[in-house]
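Quality-control log, excerpt.
Job 1 of 2 completed; input and output follow.
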Amino acid sequence: MSAAEPAAPRHHLSWGEVRDTFLAEPEVQQAYQELAPRLAIVRELISMREQRGWSQRELADRAGMKQPQLARLETGQVEPKLGTLQRLATAMGCRVRVRIEPANSTASIASNLEALHG
């Protein structure tokens, strides 16, 4: 290739392509499904905060916690505790609702994966 020829465009994998490649492995798919409830909660928390136009610091202040605590929760570094979720929900004018469903329900598994894929 000469200096005058443009380089061929490189294809970079999208997040969906990377995710689907990993999810083809049964062990990865099982771990992903086990994390689905936690990730769905975090996704909902971030969405509710962003709908209000609040920064992490603003929500943390309103909930009586430190911004780094909220950041660790939102990035999945820590598992959210029910009490913490209740404080955050109350600060946003919301409430926490918990449901327990049969684990072998294909509808439940499909909805968990759909929630993650957004």
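Job 2 of 2 completed; input and output follow.
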Amino acid sequence: MTAKDAGRLWEELRHRDPEEKAGWIRQLATDPSGESIQVLLDVLEQESWFLRDQAARALATMGEAVVEPLVEYLGSGLWFTRASAAFALGRMGLPRAAAPLVDLLKDPNRTVRDAVWDALVLLCRNELATRELASAFLSLPDRARRYALDGISQRDPDSADRVTRHLGDMSAGAPPASSPGDSDLVWEDVVGGSEEARRIVS
């Protein structure tokens, strides 16, 4: 796909009805050139939830070529772009995404953190990714680790158990299997409860 073709499709995405837009996004995903990938990444910065969701799903099918760009988009200044990139990385299920996603758990935006936890649960479908996730958790302070495990446990206790088992294999000091779900930690316990954090989270 040429840059001109990608530009034309971008115009189509801006003006067509939702079903036609979804069709154009699927077309972009079938031809993963640099230009089409960039168009899909640009869609993650649009205010339309529908377009972001469709683009994230398309990007998730495109493999290694989009992992690094999606990791970069985790640092976007737009909360909904960070959440969409996390969603796409979770659906891809690749081990490379584990550490950047865990790092994003410190995001002050609650919706982003929820998207990250959902993505981490999806990563746990891949055993290699689960091990990478446990390794990333191991680098966290104890309270932050328990908080992160609790977020996974609330969504899928089996995934939390698998991560905990890997933690146990990696470190004798890892949290016991009963830790997820037992903690009363809240986000303010982890980030220190600053006024700015409370204001953004709320």
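Post-run check on job 2. The chain is about 70% helix and 0% strand.
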